[in-house]
Design brief:
The complex is a heterodimer of chains A (about 100) and B (about 500).
Chain A (H helix, E strand, L loop, with lengths): L4 H10 L6 H18 L38 H5 L5 E2 L2 E2 L7
Helix pairs in contact in A: 1-2
Chain B lengths: L8 H9 L5 H13 L7 E4 L1 H16 L10 E5 L26 H8 L3 E6 L38 H8 L6 E5 L5 H7 L2 E4 L19 E6 L2 H11 L17 H4 L8 E5 L9 H16 L3 E5 L7 H16 L17 H12 L2 H14 L5 H21 L5 E5 L15 H5 L6 H6 L3 E8 L5 E8 L4 H15 L12
Parallel strand pairs in B: 2-3, 7-8, 7-9
Antiparallel strand pairs in B: 1-3, 4-6, 5-6, 5-10, 9-11, 10-11
Chain lengths: ~100, ~500
């Protein structure tokens, strides 16, 4: 399956990646090369095979419904915004998203 | 003591316990070597102040006869592990200035056992690469060179900094991670031991995520005993990672001496590739002989789906990566490039922050997960993966371990393969199968090729049976007697 320039443009939009116009064509060629190589999976008969979800046969563990006190617990707003490029109080600041 | 950095981790630990060596001395010795090895570019962030602080605390504990299993031992930490208060970059521009407010579970385990961090190690960006050429912080250079030549070689990737720093003895051991071969391939290229545990053995909490169903942390060390010691400290249950298994951690070191008499070692014929260097084939045969001599029984086995492992990987890993890397948006941490609106800001930040290989994989992942293609690519890949998994489990009914080469070549020159993504991906052809099936694997240095470069042999074990795998690895190591070291051309 080969990918064209327009598909790269569309996928880049979905992935939120700005791709300059002159890179679209070379990327289409690169991605087509990789996907062409991947196509060999069509040789494998997967009729009736269940898709893999986990290599370890365990049920998802449940925890007590308590507020954690470790890193995953509450009252860490200051830590959560500590690395943000722009903040105000305990909020992340982004360009205006509503009119 | 002639030179502290000549010791293995086990030897150093002994010296620290008996107080013949202080952690301060050991830490200073490694820091000195690391400083003199700038040409290798193994570190992104050396942390000498933190190291000396941690060493002082360790010395105080050792003085009173206390201290953990790794008390005072200086380690290098791959820059994929979040370290509280210390810059963590994952080799990417997009994490500029990120100082985590928390510690990854694996590093917390190691530091809890007394280990000293001497720095954060260079790596391929987001662990995506097999040559350490995708790092925003530049290539790591392999301490090994071809005999009589000065061509800079790759240390492998993505744990290139971990492998180079252990091979050049800039730390007593290093943490690493393996998604498709990123521990074992660099270990093979640098004459070191690299162990990828069973998926679920080590917690992934606090490790920058690449492909969550494949990522696993493990040690990169000078020898098999050191790998056993480090793994014991790194492994263990963690409620913060729901895929981390709640099983006791065995004393891996204790199993080493048990030998391999009576073990059944499978040799999968599909790991014999057209065009593979004759030396690798010969080394594999040699490995088979060594294991026979040690009393193991060799069983020829067949894993016909092996050739599909890499194509499956290059759907599953980019798909998971495109999802995991959606978090880098210039809002919560790291780099931000301002845009006219929030979407432009996302697009510009990600375009500036990600390198070419990361962009390529994010695009592939987004494509294979997009409407209309999901069934044809992602779902099919996960079905083939299931068949590969079943094929391994079936084979492990007849054998205890599998023996294969670690890589299809020795270390190659920087720039030799970076122009062709698929050629680069083929580096992981022998290692990626263990990730898809969640199995433990280890690469052990087994000899030098005629150009004087190290080559490795790989053992793959049953799920959660790292003990048998380590017994096999120890036996291979004893037989190979690999004790060569690279010339220290980088000094001075």
């Amino acid at each position: 399956m080969s990918i064209d320039k327009e598909t790269v443009r569309k996928v880049a939009k979905l992935a939120r990646l700005a791709v300059p116009e002159e890179r679209l064509e070379p990327l289409a060629a690169e991605l087509s090369g990789i996907l062409g190589w991947i196509e060999q999976l069509n040789e494998v008969d997967v009729e009736g095979v269940e898709a893999m979800t986990s290599t370890v046969d365990v049920t998802l563990p449940m925890r007590e419904d308590n507020l954690a006190t470790d890193y995953t617990g509450g009252k860490r707003a200051r830590d959560i915004v500590a690395n943000a490029p722009k903040t105000e109080d305990h909020f992340f600041v982004v360009p205006k998203v509503v009119e | 003591m002639s030179d502290i950095t000549d010791l293995t981790l086990a030897g150093l630990r002994q010296g620290l316990k008996t107080r013949e060596i202080s952690s301060k001395e050991a830490t200073e010795a490694y820091l000195g070597r690391a400083e003199a090895a700038e040409k290798l570019n193994a570190f992104i962030t050396p942390t000498p102040d933190k190291a000396l602080e941690m060493a002082a605390l360790s010395d105080a504990k050792l003085a009173t006869g206390e201290g953990g299993d790794l008390e005072g031992v200086p380690l290098g930490i791959k820059d994929l592990f979040c370290t509280e208060g210390t810059l963590t970059t994952a080799g990417s521009h997009i994490l500029d200035g990120f100082r985590p407010k928390y510690e990854s579970s694996v590093t917390a385990n190691l530091f809890g056992d007394g280990a000293v961090m001497i720095g954060k190690l260079n790596m391929d960006e987001f662990a995506m690469g097999s040559s350490n050429e995708t790092s925003f912080y530049g290539n790591v250079i392999n301490p090994w060179r071809r005999k009589g030549q000065q061509t800079p070689l790759t240390p492998g990737g993505s744990s290139g900094g971990s492998a180079a720093s252990v091979a050049a003895r800039l730390c007593a051991g290093a943490t690493a991670t393996d998604t498709g071969g990123s521990i074992r391939q660099p270990a093979a290229f640098t004459g070191t031991v690299g162990l990828k545990p069973t998926y679920g053995r080590c917690s992934r909490w606090g490790i920058v995520a690449f492909a969550s169903s494949l990522d696993q942390a493990g040690p990169l060390t000078q020898d098999v005993r050191d790998a056993a010691i480090m793994l014991k400290s790194m492994a263990g249950h963690d409620p913060k990672d729901s895929t981390c298994i709640d099983q006791p951690v065995p004393d891996y070191e204790a199993s080493l001496g048990q030998g391999i008499k009576g073990l059944k070692i499978g040799v999968p014929k599909e790991y014999r590739l057209d065009g593979m260097p004759a030396e690798i084939e010969a080394l594999w045969q040699q490995g088979i002989e060594w294991m026979k001599d040690a009393g193991a029984e060799i069983v020829d086995v067949s894993l016909p789906l092996t050739k599909y492992a890499l194509p499956v990987y290059y759907i599953v890993a980019p798909a998971e990566a495109s999802s995991n890397l959606a978090r880098y948006d210039g809002v919560k941490y790291g780099l931000r490039i301002e845009g006219s609106d929030i979407t432009r800001q996302y697009e510009k930040t990600r375009a500036a922050g990600f390198g070419d290989e990361v962009k390529r994989r994010v695009l592939i992942g987004t494509y294979v997960l997009s409407a209309g293609y999901y069934d044809a690519y992602y779902l099919r890949a996960q079905k083939v993966r299931k068949k590969i998994f079943d094929e391994f489990l079936e084979t492990f009914k007849q054998v205890d371990l599998l023996l294969t080469p670690s890589t299809p070549s020795a270390a190659f020159g920087l720039g030799e393969k970076s122009h062709d993504p698929v050629q680069m991906y083929l580096n992981d052809i022998f290692t990626v199968t263990a990730n898809l099936a969640g199995l433990p694997g280890i690469s052990v240095p087994a000899g030098l090729d005629r150009q004087g470069l190290p080559l490795g042999l790989q053992l793959i074990g049953k799920p959660f049976d790292e003990e048998t795998m380590l017994r096999g690895a120890f036996s291979l190591e004893q037989a190979a007697g690999f004790n060569q070291r690279p010339d220290e051309w980088w000094v001075g």
